[in-house]
Amino acid sequence: MGSDLNITKELQEYILSHGFNLHPVQKEIIDYNASLGDIKRMQISISQSQFLHLIIKISNIKKILEIGTFTGLSTLSMALALSDDGKIIALDKNEETNKVAIDFFKKANQDHKIKTLIKPALESLDEIKNEKFDLVFIDADKMNYIEYYERSLQLLNKNGLIIIDNVLWYGEVVNENNNDKFTKNIKEFNSHISKDTRVEKLIIPLGDGMTVCRKL
Question: With contact defined as beta carbons under 8 Å apart, do 30 and 43 qualify?
């Protein structure tokens, strides 16, 4: 039986060098985040940004909900893939990083596609409870993942996608001795998804792991 490759740093660099080129403003965001110290870990990986871009390009996705924006790499990656009449509603509670993200969106001439809501995501989800989306991308505080997922299912069109980041949690999901609250929560979330008969799902080992769910 075949197995997945162990992706070394060298192989990762090879993969990225043979993929499609990033937009100049995407590169600026990555460089900016690299200057932020440890908090840069909140950025999605380059391979994840390319994956999101391609998923949107090959699908009939017009309306996206993003839960967790940070400085905007994932948001911009998706916006660049949308047609000009596409729309993203991006939720984040951090006003400072959101201002940075908006500046990047404007610089890339994609701000007309993006609406940001700045407050705790559960409050914003209450505000948009009558909206419908083709894709939801979840990359926010991990302790609310199940609640975000359940709310997203209610907002999703049939055959729509939910993509969730950080589901492998630095590989700690298979560490039986790690009982910290975040690891336990991710394990519980993954178990919740695996038992959910309302969706088709798979885990993709990109970045820190992404679960992709299609609503039936």
Answer: yes
Spatial separation of the C-alpha atoms in residues 93 and 91, rounded to whole Å: 7
Q: What is the pLDDT of residues 127-176, one digit of tens each?
A: 999 999 999 999 999 999 999 999 999 999 999 999 999 999 999 999 99
Tokens 């055959």 sit on residue? 159
- Taking the C-alpha atoms of residue 171 and residue 177, their distance in angstroms, rounded to an integer, is 12
What is the per-residue pLDDT across 16-68, written as a single tens digit (0 to 9) for each?
Answer: 888 888 999 999 999 999 999 889 889 999 999 999 999 999 998 999 999 99
Closest by Cα among 160, 135, 145 to 74: 135
- pTM given for the model: 0.95
Q: Tell me the C-alpha distance between 98 and 153, whole Å.
A: 25
Cβ atoms of 116 and 98 closer than 8 Å = yes
d(CA 21, CA 16): 9
Which burial class, exposed, middle or buried, applies to 185 when counting CB atoms under 10 A from its CB (0-12, 13-18, 19+)? middle
List all residues 6 or more positions away from 152 whose beta carbon is below 8 Å from its beta carbon: 65, 67, 133, 136, 138, 162
Distance of alpha carbon 89 from alpha carbon 34, whole angstroms: 26
Answer whether 183's CB lies under 8 Å from 193's CB. Answer: no
Give backbone dihedrals phi and psi of 168, rounded to 5 degrees, phi first.
-100, -10
